[in-house]
Amino acid sequence: MPNNLVYIVMDSCRYDSYARAKTPNMDRLAIGESRWSYASWTAPSHHSIFLGQVAHKAPTKVLASEVYKQEYALWVDRLDIPDLSFTSFVPELSLAKMLQSQGYRTVGRVSMPVLNPFTPFSRFFDDYQLMPDHNDFAAMVDLVEFSAEQPSYYFFNLGETHYPYMLKDESLPRISGVHGVVKGMDGAVLRSSDDSGGEPEFFSAEDMAMLHEQQVRCVEHVDGLIAELLAKCPRNTHVIITSDHGECFGEGDFFGHGPVMHEKVFEVPFLEAHRP
Q1: What would the pLDDT profile of 243-256 be if each residue is shown by its tens digit?
Q2: CATH of the domain at 82
Q3: Which structural domain range is residue 17 located in?
Q4: Cα distance between residue 122 and residue 129, in whole Å
Q5: How far apart are CA 191 and CA 166, in angstroms?
């Protein structure tokens, strides 16, 4: 039977947050390398992921179209399906569709609303859900079930590492000048310098360092849950752990990602291997 596939995207996790974190369970799988995302925010980056592309190495002196085709060929070794190639993904260019055609049960669990089931991202998934909580990887793991008769493809998009980098039952640590409580993703990134409608003041360097440390902590939290997930995975399971894009914590006077052109928004961790 072909290998099961578990594909984990730690949303917004930049490479050095992963590298700074204590990740004994990811380390059992592989040591992650620095790679580059195809886009600077969730939706377009996931479009490339759902096409079957993974974070790239930015090779030089090569023809870009050949790099794409070679990347598709790597699915042969990942899944132990000998006849896979670029043409196996045509015309839909969909990893989920290709796996469905190979008899896989396809399951998607996502945290970001831009990936919700009403978007085209849910196409070709037998079971696709937007989780009710922004930080719900634990619930995703609880729902995982593998079959002895049918290979499975599980795709996970994790909100834990996305702003505001808060775990369950936590609130945003007080940052001087932030008014009120940040209750969700749309919490203010800029803050008023005073209450009289003055010019907004950017986060301080200390604020940025604290927020970066919060993302590191969230990677460590995710790593703990990965131990539970790996315990559920059969031996014939291939695991990919990566991010869709990075984040700026003050570099170049940027915070966050999206309309930001900075290498820290594109540098992401990438690790993969068969289940230990």
Answers
A1: 999 999 989 988 89
A2: 3.40.720
A3: 4-274
A4: 8
A5: 19
